[in-house]
Amino acid sequence: MILNALYVIFICLVTTLGTLFLIRSKDAPPGPYPWPIFGNLKLIRKLSQKFGGQHVAFMKLNQQYNSDVIKLWLGSSSVYVVGGFESIQKILRDDNYDARPWTEFVKVRNMGIKKGITMTDGPEWKAVRGWLVRSLRNLGFGREEMCNRISEELEILIDGLKRQGDKPVRIKSMIAPAVINGLWTLVTGKRIDDKRRLMHFLNIMERRAQAFDITGGILSVYPWLRHIAPKACGYEVLVTLNNELKAFLMESIEEHKKNYVKGSEKDLIDMFLTEMHLGDVFDAEFDDDQLLMILVDLFIAGSQTTTVTLDFLFLWMTVNQDAQAKLQDELDTVVGNRLPDLSDRPKLPFTEAVLTESQRLRLVTPIIGPRRSLKEASLNGYRIPKGATILMNTYSVHADSNIFEDPLSFRPERFIQNNVYTPSKKLILFGGGHRRCPGETVAKSEVFLLFAGIMKNFKLLPACDSDLLDINPQPGLTISPKPYEVLLVKR
Predict the structure, then answer these.
(1) Of 190, 164, 186, the residue nearest 175 (C-alpha)
(2) Which residues of 385-404 are buried (b: 16+ CB within 10 A; e: fewer)?
């Protein structure tokens, strides 16, 4: 009797939930009807697996429903997915969408600390972000001091690559230390010279990037699973990674506190400690938690993204030998026998075009998000309720045949007119609005110097003559190339 009663209750619950899900107001965006309890989770996973990532799956759904705005259900939570250049720009330019959702997944990602510059919002976020931008500028962010640091890392990297001889290498594992040390020096004032310590840090960052997709994975859909199946839902591994990352960063923070001398600030941590001593100047909390989350945000955004962007670039060069030869001819003509410098950039239109085309096709973060609406609004005639979660799919712009001819092909020449590098105004590579990436300048500089420096010194070949490298990305919190090996031939 009890089992029968429970069964009837379950059927009634499923039916009721199903009815509620299927009720769609006239001003709601279109989208697939959700299953009770699970929503559209199964469909999204199926399409992501079929097309190679959520960014492509979302674009296909936008096309299917002939709408730049669609509504999806992840379990019992709704998400508004926005594609198309004009629609994305409406979100980026509107202060109403500057906020972030504070879901269970975001809480875990942020170690339960609502601080930092990536997953927070409000007056404190604005104050801390403003302080960070000013501090990075004072440290030479985007100027000669920073470029000298990157050039030093480049020289170390080239020496290491030359010692590889004729052995096939996974170039990503070689460039990652250079990228992380360039940022680490800016933040802490010195390199990570201990190889084991450096590899440990890189390993933590790599595992974090592959742990979840942009929607937060199963933990975001069913947050209660962390209590009954912490391992299966990914909660356990993320907490473990958080503890490892926190311990690693706090070690440097504590070392700085011991050696801190006011007026002798040499790096970002020193400058933050000065702010702590000043007190509540910017109406924000400048405490250990804030510093920790700023560092977490900087290294997640600055190291992993830059490394993977370079990994895609070297993959394209290996697959497209004609483009590689043309790029190297340009570097030889302009740069000569020295290493490239930022002053060379205006004279290297094809190199710039290669950088842009690679990111257009394989932007490491093709989905901008998540955002939260601060009040009820209208987008393309559809009602966006207060507190709604919004994701923006830049891939839908970069793969739009109405904007880019033959969009799925690697054609750097599309960005050159009359021998001048001319990027499209419809590229969205670093976000926009108040949340535009604050590290854009250093990311562009680091990618250019490391990429041009390696291409000036080496020819990249497939590890085997018959080896056809897979250019399709593997999904994760960011997309990345599938592991590949190349031969580096000294030029």
Answers:
(1) 164
(2) eeebbbbbbbbbbbbeeebb
Alpha helices in 260-320 (DSSP H): 268-278, 288-299, 305-319
Instruction: With H, G, I as helix, E, B as strand and everything else as coil, classify residue 329.
Output: helix
Percent of the chain with pLDDT over 90: 57
Mention every residue, 6+ apart, whose C-beta is less than 8 A from residue 117.
125, 128, 129, 132, 293, 294, 297, 438
Name residue 279's amino acid.
G
d(CA 268, CA 317): 35
Of 257, 259, 297, 295, the closest CA to residue 277 belongs to 257
- Enclosing H/E stretch for 80: strand 77-82
φ and ψ at residue 383, rounded to 5 degrees: -80, 125
Binding-site residues for heme sit at: 437
Taking only the tens place, the pLDDT of each residue in 182-229 is 889 888 988 998 889 999 998 888 777 666 555 556 666 777 888 888
Asked if residues 489 and 461 have their Cβ atoms less than 8 Å apart, the reply is: yes
Annotated binding-site positions: 437
Q: Are strands 473-474 and 480-481 parallel, antiparallel or unpaired?
A: antiparallel
Contact 445, 146 (CB under 8 A): yes
Angle at 80 (CA atoms; ends 77, 86), nearest 5 degrees: 170
Average pLDDT over residues 74-95: 94
Give residues with Cβ within 8 angstroms of 159, minimum separation 6: none
- CA atoms lying within 13 Å on the CB side of residue 436: 12
Q: Which residues does 484 contact at the CB level (< 8 Å), separation at least 6?
A: 170, 315, 318, 463, 469, 470
pTM of the model: 0.89
Burial class (CB in 10 A: 0-12, 13-18, 19+), 486: buried
- The β-bridge partners of 483 are none
- Nearest to 432, CA basis, from 94, 63, 14, 73: 94
